[in-house]
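Thread: Newbie trying to understand structure tokens

Hi all, I'm a second-year student working on a class project, and my supervisor (Dr. K.) asked me to get a predicted structure for one chain before our next meeting. I've only ever worked with sequences, so writing a 3D structure as a token string is new to me. If someone could post the tokens and maybe explain what I'm looking at, I'd be very grateful. Here's the chain:
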Amino acid sequence: MFTKRVNSLVAISLALTFQALGQTKKPNPTHDPPGQLFRHTPMPKASRSIIIPLGNIQFAFDTENLREHTVWRGKLDLYGPQYVNAKRPFIAQPNGQLLWGNPPTLPWRTKPPGAEFTLDGDQPKGKFTATTTDGKSVTLRYTLQLATGESVAVQLQPSNSFRGLQRAMTISQCKSPLWFLANSFQNGTAKRGVTVDGIGGLAVEVTNSPLSYTETTITELGAETIYDTQTIETVAEQHWVLVPPHKGVATVIITTHHDEHFASLPKNPSSPLAKLGEVGQAEFKPRTVPRSPYYKTEQLSLPPGLDLLITGMDWLGDGRLAVCTWPGEVYLLDGLLDEEEPVTFNRLTKGLNEPMGLLVRDDRLYVSQKQELTEIAFNDQGGRTEFTRVSADWGYSGHYNAFSYGPVLDRDGRFVLANAGHSGRWDMKYMGWGIRQATNGGMEGVASGFREPNGIGVFGPNKDIFVTDNQGHWTAACKLNHLRTGKYFGRPSSTPDPKNLYNGRDYFTPPAVWFPYTLARSVSGMAEILDDRFGPFRGQLLVGDFQNALVARVFLEKINGEYQGAVFPLLNGFRSGVNRLSYGPDGCLYVGGLQRTWVSIAPDPASLERVTFNGNTPFSIRKAEAKPDGFLLTFTEPARPSAADPDNFDVSQFRYAYHPDYGSPRFNHAGEKDSQTPIELTNATLSPNRLELHLSLSGWREGHVTQVRCYDVMNDAGESLWHDTFHYTLNEIPAP
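---
Reply by user tm_fold:
Sure, no problem. This is what the structure looks like when written as tokens:
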């Protein structure tokens, strides 16, 4: 039986653990799929946690404090759109009987525990490093940095035995004694509460220590504003394990007995492990895309039960495509480049925390989870897979919108991410920021002011980095931003920017391109056209749109050292919301899509499609370059001489407002709402080869979007322009 004082502590812990469950009755959660090896997920008391299911016991590990923060008998409830089709900030809640948990502090001490428990006692510094698995068990790895300068590596492998929860801990050589808090909150002898096996000199010391501390309780409301806190005031029985100084690697097995009847209680049978390796095969099937006689689109028929909600794609050196998904899976797709072979799906892992990007580097995978940038090293033969934390040096509340997009590599080979500021808070670090890997291994801020930057990519020979952002509060329309040091892109977000900077601020760094709302409403990933195999648009950028399920084309140029350019329609009618684009080694465009609570007109919940240029060159405006007096249009084919008729063109300008409202209407030069200013076309001159058309304009202004509509512009075969309208973001007019 628990003592009265321990009951008090457990009751408080239960209240903390289950508080969020009582706030919202709907939607009902989804239980974690059976057989998961582990799951990175936010928890009510620790946003960066790893949950390891052990039969009927759930073991939750706090990777920030390196503590076993919650151990319970029961299930794990999952929320979030990928599970319940509703926006919920937190996707994991304990569901069952709380057994025990540790206070929010590093459970290691370098001196014997005192009469009173303190969160900041004589303790080393800790750093979580990696998770490894052999497909059967999971090992957590971290390091302790002692005040003496000594570094100690710890490996922790939990398991569930008939005696209770076992933690097999391997500890590297250590010259100093270490005390480890292995709590069970049991009434009785140390033998019944905690037992240890391992090297000589081990001891268990039981203390009845006063506990007094404030613990953060992450709730749905707290994620959006400030965290709730709960003060713990009680006395608890604590079990401290002494690990004596030792040479070489020592192994210690710590068993916590959950209750006196644990051995006799029936256990849930262990679920078969989630299937890894090959999980299905599929083939590409042609389909018709509206108004695209120049490109062939094929849809990959997904195996039954495979929810391929694509959030990241990149290519391995052997021609396989690595894909990560919103529910946290990683697949390796083989056979995409061989039209004679079926595509084989190999599941590498499950259990990541809503990754939104994937990069291949030296045949290792780098995945941007919400809480960290993770390196995945794997063995194709089914051996050990290692998940190494590259960095977690940014604030993470666990909020639904706290996505981290990327990574990409800058010209110096450093990782760059873009964090959502949609859920930014001033006490959180780098939300709404573009961040890059610093020389010390952490992350440093590059630029701030992003809202929902659901696309980051590298463009051009200098590897300039571009970031898309989505319309919302402080963000007038969807846009494409050139990431540069020290820039502010408009969305007030979080530290290290000073909060008072945004009181009355009326200026932000303009994007390279605004996407008109009539074309794109939820821009996403991007891909550069690297060669001529995809048609006449080499060196231009393709950008996806989730809501309208389309791919736009962006022509970029530098004026006075800064990017600006034109956006054109390209392809539409994709089967799911276009989320990620990848230009393949075969010169094809691979389009990954999904649909959950993010709105899309597309019909399918998930898709992977391949777009191939069929060799039939479209009659199009290949480039639209700004000149001191207008535009120089370059066609893909010679135009008829009649194209030089000024009556063939309708030119107008508008701007967007910078304000806290959601989105913005169009304003003309006079500031009138929902209006555009007509721009006079004074002359149109066709080049001798009829591939270039110079449009001379009068009255146009910088800082506006220029809309150009073309009528009756045809090639020699009498074909009209494939797309007759473009929008050019005129940040600056070139100097004469």
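A couple of things are worth pointing out once you decode it. The first strand starts at residue 30 and ends at 31. The first helix runs from residue 4 to 18. Feel free to ask follow-ups in this thread.
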